[in-house]
Design a protein that fits this description.
About 65% of the residues lie in helices and about 0% in strands. It has 18 helices and no strands.
Length: about 425
């Protein structure tokens, strides 16, 4: 079910008048015209409290009282929006008040949608963790989410989007230079298909049969087709670079490589083309297992990426996508150690493991000699890695990527004598 924007302002529902307090103190009494609204406009009144010690003048306290009466009185939300704007309230304050009012209304309707399930004991199984699965109630709640979002947009228009700097930053990083109209249409598409997928998942109840998987695949294709129709080729490319599963996977896999934007775009385009040629659902990634056909396709992809990057960067790229290197790099980041020592650590691992394999395969060695030589390798590894990472880093590494060190001194299980 689509998550409504009102999650950001749930706390406002507890006391919408608090927002008015902010507005009164920051706008001043000359900007607040709500106290001119006739008393009959409010269906309820707000209790008057002692304003001493609050820094409010009598005029401000009166404006706050009348504002609180207007807000608490409910009534038509379109009229409330008009009055708040006419009074000079900033868009962010209007948005907070309206979304709190809308949240309260739709909260009651959601509660009513599951009223028939309230008597179900809390310890009874529920996939959602709240109530047993009920397709009718689930569809109704999903519809309420869509209705709530639509009402907020109807009431506030362009002001429905969160105006704060953080929200705008996240929106820009997610959507780039898309117009607001296309963002709204895109979010409607995403919301509709999310509801449909949730319905399939709910009906499956955790057991996805082949027909359920086919439905999910169909919804994925249909959503993609609708998005393609919405964008120009340039907009689609930019959207995919920011939001596609392929781009997300590449950002994770290339973290240690630290690509430029041009390099990222190049690798993305080559990977996306390879996925299209071999099937996006085939599991083809820049570095992963697969069957013979997938491995061949991966080899071709790696060769194309290396050719595009050039010899020097290709060598750094191959090192960066090495799973062992990625794991070491993550550990170094966590421990705030320099990333420059990652190649040294991986090189030590490869060297020690190669020498350990030679010892294991040397049939001329006795069991005791083999154990002694492996223990010496383990000590060498500890000394070298501790010098590079420090004692704390080495101890963390043994639990996170350094399993091979522990294996050097792990004795094989004794052989059981044959039964008579």
């Amino acid at each position: 079910m689509k998550k409504p924007l009102v999650f950001l302002t749930l706390s406002l529902a507890a006391n919408a008048a608090l927002i008015v307090t902010f507005a009164v103190r920051h706008l001043g009494p000359t900007s607040i015209a709500l106290d001119a609204v006739p008393a009959g406009a409010a269906a309820a009144s707000v209790p008057v409290r002692d304003a001493s010690g609050t820094g409010l003048s009598p005029a401000d306290a009166g404006a706050l009282k009348r504002s609180g009466e207007l807000i608490a009185g409910g009534g038509d939300l379109h009229t409330l929006v008009a009055r708040l704007r006419a009074a000079g309230f900033p868009p962010a304050i209007v948005r907070g008040i309206i979304m709190a009012q809308v949240s309260e209304q739709f909260g009651l309707r959601r509660k009513a949608a599951v009223a028939h399930q309230e008597a179900v004991p809390y310890w009874k199984y529920s996939p959602s963790g709240s109530f047993p699965y009920d397709p009718k109630a689930g569809n109704e709640i999903a519809a309420l989410g869509r209705e709530q979002t639509a009402l907020v947009k109807e009431l506030l228009g362009p002001d429905a989007a969160a105006p704060d700097a953080w929200s705008q930053l996240i929106r820009q990083r997610k959507y780039g230079d898309l117009t607001q109209d296309k963002i709204d249409r895109l979010e409607n598409i995403t919301s509709d298909y999310t509801d449909l997928r949730n319905q399939v998942a709910g009906d499956a109840r955790g057991i996805f049969l082949p027909e359920d998987q086919q439905k999910m695949a169909l919804l994925e294709r249909e959503q993609r087709a609708d998005i393609v129709k919405l964008f120009t080729p340039e907009e689609l490319e930019d959207y995919d670079l920011r939001n596609s599963n392929t781009a997300g996977g590449l950002r994770h896999q290339l973290a240690a490589f630290n690509p430029t934007e041009e390099e990222f775009r190049t690798i993305f385009e080559l990977t996306q083309a390879a996925q299209s040629a071999n099937g996006a659902a085939s599991g083809l990634v820049i570095n992963g297992p697969g069957n013979a056909n997938q491995q061949a396709a991966q080899s071709q992809l790696q060769a194309a990426i290396a050719a595009a990057l050039g010899p020097a960067r290709a060598a750094e790229y191959q090192q960066a996508i090495n799973p062992a290197y990625q794991q070491v790099n993550q550990l170094l980041t966590r421990l705030e150690l320099p990333a420059s020592i990652a190649p040294q650590i991986v090189s030590v691992q490869q060297d020690i493991q190669q020498r350990a394999n030679a010892i294991q395969q040397d049939q001329s060695l006795s069991a005791d000699d083999r154990t002694t030589q492996l223990a010496a390798l383990a000590q060498e590894a500890q000394t070298t890695l501790t010098s590079a990472m420090g004692a704390r880093g080495y101890e963390a590494y043994k639990s996170y990527g350094g399993w091979w060190v522990n294996n050097l001194t792990r004795r094989p299980a004794p052989k059981m004598p044959p039964r008579n």
